[in-house]
């Protein structure tokens, strides 16, 4: 007969664990002897080692009692079932680890990987960070609203970034961000951007320019986010409208308004 401390030592667990197994009804709790101590026999040592082995293997305590009493076939079936559950948990934890790893880049917190890759490519091409941030802010609600369409949109965006003229569009746009609304060079920039957009639309179709068909309320939200990030862009959009184009998130061809040189 051994004490609880000796029992725990022989089985390789703590006294606290033994008491926990008592509380869970997994290990019978013997009566106290005349000295007030609980004494355990060799059977308790063996039973405790079995409990410890099952617990260390990942078997939930709620199922340990079932396995201790199971026959060979029942035991094998139960273990197979637990193994499937553990594999599912491992896959889920791996997905959690992948998400945690992506959070390190910042953008990955709220954006799918393909959008993050697109933004990184814009940075690599030398696009002004404020424009990248405006794109990022726009893609956050867009990806949340229509996640199933992100791969389709990103495939077109990646293809468009292969066009040097579109890269020039972003680089020229970056020049506008540090100019005052009354800077005459802003008018020249609007001329270049309007000519570029018109050329793209004539050569590849207006769908190539306006490639994201989304609801008007979402367009307005994304425009608001963009203008908050790059305030000078609002004036540039006004100038573009005079030259036959309107919109930021959703570019559309319109009839040129009078005063297209101012």
Automatic annotation (TrEMBL):
<protein>
    <submittedName>
        <fullName>MerR family transcriptional regulator</fullName>
    </submittedName>
</protein>
<feature type="domain" description="HTH merR-type">
    <location>
        <begin position="1"/>
        <end position="70"/>
    </location>
</feature>
<dbReference type="InterPro" id="IPR047057">
    <property type="entry name" value="MerR_fam"/>
</dbReference>
<dbReference type="Pfam" id="PF00376">
    <property type="entry name" value="MerR"/>
</dbReference>
<keyword id="KW-0238">DNA-binding</keyword>
<dbReference type="InterPro" id="IPR000551">
    <property type="entry name" value="MerR-type_HTH_dom"/>
</dbReference>
<dbReference type="InterPro" id="IPR009061">
    <property type="entry name" value="DNA-bd_dom_put_sf"/>
</dbReference>
């Amino acid at each position: 007969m051994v004490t609880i401390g000796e029992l725990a030592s022989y089985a390789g667990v703590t006294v606290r664990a033994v008491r926990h197994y008592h509380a869970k009804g997994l290990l019978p709790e013997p009566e106290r002897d005349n000295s007030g101590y609980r004494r355990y026999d060799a059977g308790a040592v063996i039973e405790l080692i079995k409990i410890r082995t099952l617990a260390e293997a990942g078997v939930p305590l709620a199922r340990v009692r079932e396995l201790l009493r199971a026959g060979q076939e029942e035991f094998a079936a139960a273990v197979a079932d637990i193994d499937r559950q553990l594999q599912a948990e491992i896959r889920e934890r791996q997905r959690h680890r992948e998400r945690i790893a992506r959070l390190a880049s910042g953008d990955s917190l709220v954006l799918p990987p393909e959008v993050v890759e697109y933004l990184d490519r814009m940075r690599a091409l030398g696009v002004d960070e404020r424009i990248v941030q405006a794109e990022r802010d726009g893609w956050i609600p867009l990806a949340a609203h229509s996640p199933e369409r992100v791969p389709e949109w990103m495939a077109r965006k990646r293809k468009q970034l292969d066009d040097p003229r579109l890269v020039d569009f972003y680089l020229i746009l970056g020049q506008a961000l540090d100019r005052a609304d009354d800077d005459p060079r802003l008018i020249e920039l609007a001329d270049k951007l309007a000519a570029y957009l018109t050329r793209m639309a004539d050569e590849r179709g207006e769908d190539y320019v306006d490639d994201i068909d989304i609801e008007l309320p979402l367009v307005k939200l994304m425009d608001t986010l963009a203008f908050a990030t790059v305030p000078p862009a609002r004036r540039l959009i006004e100038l573009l409208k005079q030259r036959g184009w309107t919109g930021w998130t959703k570019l559309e061809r319109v009839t040129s308004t009078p005063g297209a040189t101012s």
